[in-house]
Amino acid sequence: MDVLSPKSRQELEAELACLRSRLGEYEALEALSRETGEAFLRSLEGGERCRERLDAKSEELCNARHQLQKALGRYTDLFNHSPIGYFLIDQHGILREVNVKGAALLGQSPVHLQGAPFAKYITPLARPAFDHHLQSVFAGSSGQIELALDTPDVPALPVILETSLIEGMDEGTGPLCLAAALDLGSRKQAEKALAERTEELARSNEDLERFAYVISHDLQEPLRNIGNYVQLLSRRYKGRLDADADDYIGFVVDGVMRLSNMIRELLTFSRITTQGRTFEVVDSGAALKDALANLESAITESLAEIHIAPMPEVQADSTQLISLFQNLIGNALKYREADRNPRIRIEARPVGEKWLFSIVDNGIGIESRQFERLFMLFQRINPQGGIQGTGIGLAVCKRIVERHGGQLWVESTPGQGSIFYFTLPAAPSSH
Ligand code: ADP
């Protein structure tokens, strides 16, 4: 029987050494694989962080793209719904883009126009001038050209083309000429309509003034007769007829008086523009003094306190200026509070080429919803308040101020008082 011969000690040691060195290799390999594993894990973590950053970036980009899309949408809306016709034309005169209004001016759809030569849609007569203009736009000078758009379906339409050069909007597009078409036809029509309307208004104003003048002038005479006879009746028959008759005669006398006041003021109103005097340098302080002299009895009777600041020189019709002050101060006295004496302050301060006058009172005041109505002819705010009037005074004031190129308005607090403001042109060297 074969017996394995025992290994020699030498062989065993060699095998052991071999095994040891293998073990060393395994250990080194294990350390290496551990390190690699850790490195791999680390890189995985890094990758995760990277991915998070990328996610955040991509969300940002998404938002930006969304905003851009919205902006583009807005731009497209603006472009398309603008009331001005826009044409983007390239160097060769080809239409690259047209908005809805532009296409409507040419009687076409925007899609149909893209790629078509713009010259096709203008009158043959205007084409050479347009070509020349287009060249100068591409040479760097913007400007405008007047021409007529013309298509078979739409009658020739005069327009102004405002042109300017813009950089190509898409990649690969060279610079483009942006032409904005302003429809001269409708503008001219609107101007014509406005001029006609203004003329018509001026004519009807003149007619009304003449009418008011004739009526008030011609009514004065018969009314005076009625007044005279009624007063005669009243003097001769007072107490000789019955009590009712005396009352009736009294009512007629009152009515005639009121009517004749109204007619006199209407006459004044109708004469403001037709019979006004030419403007001259007027000392507004002197005009104010005259107005106060005319109001003397009302001032004394109401125990009014009147403060006057230094008054400037203005360019005005002096008679009308007196009447303006008289009406406004007269109202301040008339519309006073029952329980206090009127206190009125008159001031003026320069505003540009004009003087701004203010008349401040401590009277009954006016509600703001009445501010407009106040200045209309025959409008009285509180006729049942027992204060006599015709409702013409402020309309006269407004007319006078407007004849001088100024404005008249009011600020007021009911129960506290009002401020009437008006502007008048300054005398040439007074401001
Ligand atoms: P009239 O005084 O004859 O009624 P006006 O045209 O001068 O006519 O004034 C129109 C209305 O404006 C008056 O009825 C009055 O109600 C109101 N008003 C004018 N001035 C004042 C004022 N200073 N304070 C309060 N109310 C005023």
Mean pLDDT, rounded to whole units? 87
Bound molecules: adenosine-5'-diphosphate
* Class based on secondary structure composition and strand pairing: alpha+beta
Q: If helices are DSSP runs of H or I spanning 4 or more residues, what is the number of helices?
A: 10
The helix fraction, in percent, is: 40-55%
Rg from C-alpha positions? 47 Å
SSE order: HEEHHHEEEHHEHHEEHEEHEE
The strand count comes to 12
Report on this model:
About 55% of the residues lie in helices and about 20% in strands. The chain has about 425 residues and is α+β, with helices and mostly antiparallel strands. A 5-stranded antiparallel β-sheet has the order 2-1-5-4-3. It has a 5-stranded mixed β-sheet with strand order 7-9-10-12-11. The chain is elongated, with a radius of gyration of 47 Å. The model has no long low-confidence stretch (mean pLDDT about 85). Adenosine-5'-diphosphate (ADP) binds next to helix 9 and helix 10.
List the helices and strands and how they pair.
Blueprint: H1 9-81, E1 85-89, E2 95-98, H2 100-105, H3 110-113, H4 127-138, E3 143-149, E4 157-166, E5 176-183, H5 184-237, H6 243-274, E6 280-283, H7 284-294, H8 296-302, E7 305-308, E8 313-316, H9 318-334, E9 343-351, E10 354-360, H10 393-403, E11 408-413, E12 417-425
Parallel strand pairs: 7-9
Antiparallel strand pairs: 1-2, 1-5, 3-4, 4-5, 6-8, 9-10, 10-12, 11-12
Helix pairs in contact: 5-6, 6-10, 7-9, 9-10
Bound molecules: adenosine-5'-diphosphate.
Adenosine-5'-diphosphate (ADP) binds next to helix 9 and helix 10.
